[in-house]
Design goal:
By secondary structure, the chain is mainly alpha-helical. The protein contains ten helices and four strands; from the N terminus they run H-H-H-H-H-H-H-E-E-H-H-E-E-H. The strands form two sheets. Strands 1-2 form a two-stranded antiparallel ribbon. Strands 3-4 form a two-stranded antiparallel sheet. Helix 3 packs parallel to helix 5. The radius of gyration is 20 Å and the shape is globular.
Length: 268
Amino acid sequence: MFKTRLISGIVLVILALATIICSGPVLLVTLIGVSCIGMQELYRAAGVHEGKTNGLEIAGYLAVVIYYLTIAYLPVSYHLPAVILGVLVMMCIFVFTYPKYQNKQIMTAFFGMIYVGVMLSYIYQTRVLPGGAFLVWMIFLCSWGCDTCAYCVGVLIGKHKMAPVLSPKKSIEGAVGGVLGAALLGAIYAAATGAYNPNPAHTPLIYASPASSWPPSWPPYGSSGGRGATSRHGPSPCSGQSSCSTSCPFPAGWWWAIRRWKYAVSWR
């Protein structure tokens, strides 16, 4: 069992490295496939899948595919409508096939689309940013680094229980150690890659920030709402860029924060 898991883990890491480095359509298609597989597992566990693939499942998969194509080839203003379109399709299925599906199945189908599909899409959206070839690895470095640091600190000095009823092995020391460890790893990574990163805004301080890839004094969008605009805080880090076909990295930064905290509290 251990040997099988080890080999499969190595293969998956190699595939992840290859697709992220290639970027573009290769990464896009890979993330679509991974999202659909993840959604299928969630639908089976949560009761949306009942013996065979049904219309609600297919709607969820199609919604994710449409969303990925939208973020890849259409402006930012179309991203949220793509998500809303998925909700409307699911609601139409619920209404016109009633009482075939229950309320919780509809909610689970939509949750799967957001939690799996939309969240994973930030890997692609981060990768295609200016300097994204370096920035995208922070998603993995923060998650894995926080996970490891939280476990080590919790095992060594963890004494104060964070949630003794829900999960008695989690400690406050482990949570704090995980977040600080991930921030330290981010700063080290930025210092090591700073000479090669084409985006001067990607500094060790920014990479160490536990909440976002951009500090509040550098909003990704200026007062006019466009890339490279200048606000009262000064020019954005994307100033001088001719165009950007993806959404603002700020949501991805918050996603990192959520992931860091999730992994921090998952170890004692």
